[in-house]
Amino acid sequence: MIAPHTRGAWRPILAAVGGVLLAACSTAGPPGTSTSPKSGGSLTVASWQEPDTLLAAGITDSMTHAFADVNPVMEGLLRGRAAVDVPKNPTIADYWEPQLATNVPTMENGDVKVNGTTMDVTWKLRHGVKWHDGVPFTSKDVKSTFDFFWLKFRDKNPTPILSTSGWDQVTGVTTPDDYTAVVHFKSVFGPYLAIATGPYGILPDHLLQQVWAKSGDITKEKLSIAIPNGFNGTDTMDKWMVGTGPFMFKEWVTGDHMTLVKNPHWWGSHQPYLDTITIKFEPDTNTQLADLRTNTIDMGLDFRAALLSPLSHLDAVTTTILPNSGAEKIDINLHNAFLQDKAVRQAILMGIDRQKIVDTLLESKTTVPPDSWLCLGTGAWCQDPSATHTKYDPAAAQKLLDNAGYKTDNSKCGSGFRSSPAGAPTNGRCLEIKLVTTSGNALREQQEVVIASDLRLIGIKITQPFNNPRAGKLFGSYANGGTLYTHVFDLAMYTNTYSTPAEPDAMYPGYVSSQIPSDANGGQGQNDTFTNDPRIDGAFNKGRTAVGQQDRKQAYIDAQKALADVLPEIPLYQQLTVIAYNKKLQGYKGNELFWLDNAEDWFLSS
After folding, report:
1. CA Rg, the chain, in Å?
2. What is the DSSP letter of 430?
3. 8-state DSSP, 147
4. Which residue of 322, 374, 476, 564 lies most exposed, with the fewest beta carbons within 10 A?
């Protein structure tokens, strides 16, 4: 899917580390498998962010935890490779491996053809695959997926999908036979591998047809589903899954757990070893740590780097650390009267001691990114070699605010705080701004305190006490009143990461002006900051109109320069994915983007 992930307390990369897999407490990557894989057993995986809908995995929203929840069930044409399997000096295609397709289409193997200004991509599909309700998978499913996201309804989709970015470049899909689908693009489209891939990459035609026979809204129309040994009932598609993956959906008890069961008819080289995976929804990372310590859970997702020290003292636990293609950042609402002033944005950037956050809260395990983090991590192939790195400089920040007319006003605003210039849009008001993040994450709450303290030193007041929404509310869709996409915030702190490896176009919905969610565009897009700059729009559009990796590089360098100048966000640090699990679990491979991607290989040792 093409929309970037948003991660609640939630991920780009250590610039110096690139795509390397690191480890704490034990060896990274797949644990030793000296014993033969054993069938049977159940595994409990803890997730501290429960989505409001399963469709938050790239359809109506984009939450990394939601992608993890659906990952063993829903498949795409391709899936992302585990970090340890990516070769040295990779091309973009090397970050992918076939899933429902039989190969990765490229110009080199003849499956991508540029015809003047248009482009065709041929997908060769796997034979013998069935959806979990027994219906065969064919090229009809591929065609209907493209119909769902764009071709059938265009910009009038009854389903409140998050973004049509990328899908809207397709003019049609032809199906020469049941195992071939040819996707026709209206122009050369560089990020073609990011479409119809990853969890929920392909949707079942036979179920879409039932919804289309009614209102067309998959979040509203209830269907009756019967999965042998799995879910049997009637509800909307945001409450159940019918996939092709190694595990089948059985139940979701809101506020407690989700149960996935082995798919005995999976198409892979071997059947899944585990019988059951239970995803247990926890309130926070500290609860996950406590439950991992007492063996109440077998695996915890998305631990923060701040918990690496206590994790290292758990002898029976393996911890993998994956640098991300994304950053922990603060989004700036450019419609806020104070934050429209670039001087205020620059002062905030200079006034936050980001290195202190890294050193004291994250044990120096990551780095502060450049002013634009667009090409961190697997996107390092397009990193701007002359990228600006603004340093912590509170004196310069104070001078900048002084020169812009923001004067200390002890009597009206409190000791050391500033008011805006008379006659400005804010007309002498006190320089006070609200900061929100996802509730329930101790590290983020600590970051809020540090940031508020730092900004106080330069005269900017952060409203306290903090009033943090839960993750489902912060990242909720425009239609559901999500905090980000309805723009009801001043500063919002979270992690944004690529949704697909090595593809900066994943950030198109977050920065291009047409992607500002509004009533006019049906709430589509993820441009919550109101970024509207022709340089940024032009650079992202240029990056889409070439296939060659080197041909696309300059476009994204231009985008980074413009983003660093506009400053719609404050990158704090390169995020890390920290997954910890009991050493009895064998066969796990760390995957930066899709945390449960190789669940079919997991088994329990004695």
Report:
1. 24
2. B
3. I
4. 564
pLDDT in tens, 263-279: 999 999 999 999 999 99
CA distances from 209 to 81, 174, 236 (A): 32, 18, 14
Tokens of 127: 């034979």
Checking DSSP bridges between strand 407-408 and strand 78-80, what pairing results, if any? unpaired
Closest CA to 600 of 268, 103, 280, 302: 268
The residues, ordered by sequence, that sit 6+ positions from 593 with a Cβ below 8 Å of its Cβ are 5, 64, 67, 80, 198, 325, 497, 498, 499, 500, 501
**Residue 155: both structure tokens together:** 């910009």
Q: Convert the pLDDT of each residue in 53-91 to its tens digit.
A: 999 999 998 888 999 999 999 999 999 999 899 998 888
Cα torsion 146, 149, 151, 155 to 10°: value is -170
Residue 364: its H or E element: none
Locate tokens 């047409």: which residue?
514
Specify whether the CB–CB gap between 376 and 326 falls below 8 A.
Answer: yes
Q: How far apart are CA 487 and CA 483, in angstroms?
A: 6
pLDDT (tens digit per residue) in 142-177: 999 999 999 999 989 999 998 898 999 999 999 999
Whether the Cβ atoms of residue 218 and residue 159 lie closer than 8 Å to each other: yes
Confidence of residue 9 (pLDDT cuts 50, 70, 90): very low
